[in-house]
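testing teh design pipeline on a random one, pls ignore if ur not involved
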């Protein structure tokens, strides 16, 4: 179901964001809850819908407020790097939920965009300053805060890198294409 929704959204020229990654199973005290989940349960129960959405080409993934196994989701290198980027080969960008970051070092753990803080707010917005520098320097091969020299990922779920504008009400739908073809 998640994969079909991602494809449906992005077929309209929009970018799909999958949220809230991961083990975000309650709203009550969501900022302070720590979901303790063994790796097998994580892989077999918590992550399959996210995995299918990523494999369908989701443009971005939003990390959640909660902690997972003692580490805030937006700081969780295992989830953001090992699982999302390495196991699933995710090429989109990771953004925080509104004010869900806890340290500027989150950028070194797999976070790409911090939501909810303006640069003028001081130290809490320092992550944004790093992101701005990263965006400016990403295509010139300068060192990334995580230690590699890869360029900034940009959302391009279509092979040609273009996005169509969203259809307006009353516009004709694009011609149906056979399932499984780009």
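output:
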């Amino acid at each position: 179901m998640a994969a079909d929704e991602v494809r449906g959204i992005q077929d309209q020229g929009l970018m799909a964001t999958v949220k809230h990654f991961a083990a975000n199973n309650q709203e009550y005290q969501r900022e302070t809850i720590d979901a303790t989940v063994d790796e097998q349960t994580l892989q077999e129960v918590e992550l399959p819908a996210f995995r299918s959405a990523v494999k369908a080409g989701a443009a971005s993934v939003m990390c959640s407020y909660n902690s997972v196994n003692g580490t805030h989701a937006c700081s969780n290198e295992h989830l953001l790097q090992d699982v999302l980027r390495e196991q699933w080969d995710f090429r989109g960008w990771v953004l925080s939920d509104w004010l869900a970051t806890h340290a500027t070092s989150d950028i070194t753990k797999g976070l790409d965009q911090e939501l909810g803080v303006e640069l003028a707010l001081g130290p809490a917005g320092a992550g944004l300053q790093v992101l701005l520098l990263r965006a400016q320097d990403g295509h010139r091969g300068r060192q990334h805060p995580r230690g590699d020299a890869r360029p900034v990922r940009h959302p391009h779920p279509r092979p040609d890198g273009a996005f169509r504008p969203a259809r307006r009400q009353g516009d004709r739908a694009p011609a149906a294409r056979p399932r499984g073809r780009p």
